[in-house]
Known about the structure:
- This protein is mainly α.
- Helix content is 68%, strand content 0%.
- It has helices at residues 5-9, 14-27, 35-43, 50-60, 64-68, 77-93, 99-118.
Amino acid sequence: MKNKFREMRGDLTQKQMVKIINKELEASGFSGITTATWSRWETGANEPSKAMYKWLSNFFGVSIAYLKGITGTQMSFEQLAHEYDLLLADYHELSLIHYADLEKIETLKGQLNYYREKK
């Protein structure tokens, strides 16, 4: 399973990405990172701390599971919870539910349970 750090960098160089991240990290009260640290994250040689994963997921607007390469869903926990709540409300309103919707509900439920276990 390959993490998504390289993908999140897009067309930026590692140095450019680190400069942007460090500016935001320092504004948030965190210490900056080095280009070598980012490089090790990209290659999977090292991983960020739990606090850093949380910060990065907020910074990029994606889930921690997505950053780790566990899921292809880019949604954050809050987005997943909102989607789940909407689907659940629809489910209760409908007497018959389409099979594809039911599969989506089950997928979101699994992702939410994953996040709840990680908290």
